[in-house]
Every structure is written in structure tokens, then in C-alpha cells.
Design brief:
By secondary structure, the protein is mainly beta. It has one helix spanning about 50-55, and strands spanning about 15-25, 30-40, 40-50, 60-65.
Length: about 80
């Protein structure tokens, strides 16, 4: 798809949390993107630096944290 064109995509993942990028920690290969989803909650995701650049991710931009997992672990303290 040519650059500059907007592509709309629907996803099967039900957990799509909209927020604002508040921090990007860049590494040599991967980066950590931190998204503020409101209510004092933040989600971090480790993705490739290539993806960060291709998606044009920047602090202050809106983004979605899309969570698709096959299992969720639950733990308790002693």
C-alpha cells in the first residue's frame, strides 16, 4: 500500500484499549511503548524499532493497545 494512504482494519481481538503514548524507550532492536489508557492505568508493549518507525509512533499520539492472549494467569500472595 502506498505511503500516506489510510487503511482501516478490523481485528478479532476483543481487548482493544485506546490511549495516548506517554513514553517510548528505544533500544538497539526493540523499544518499549507505554500507553496511558486513563484512570491512572498504563500498558507497556515491547515491539521492534522497525514497527515503531513504520507506525510513526510518537509521544502524544493516540494508539491502541490490542491484547490477544491464549491464557491468563492468576496469582495470590501468601
Amino acid at each position: 500500500m502506498p505511503r500516506g494512504r489510510i487503511q482501516v482494519m478490523k481485528l478479532s481481538a476483543r481487548n482493544q484499549l485506546k490511549g495516548k503514548i506517554v513514553e517510548i524507550k528505544e533500544g538497539a532492536v526493540n523499544g518499549i511503548v507505554i500507553i496511558d489508557i486513563g484512570g491512572g492505568n498504563k500498558i507497556s508493549s515491547t515491539i521492534s524499532m522497525t514497527s515503531i518507525k513504520e507506525l510513526g509512533l510518537e509521544v502524544g499520539k493516540e494508539a491502541y493497545a490490542v491484547i490477544k492472549a491464549t491464557s491468563v494467569m492468576v496469582g495470590i500472595g501468601d
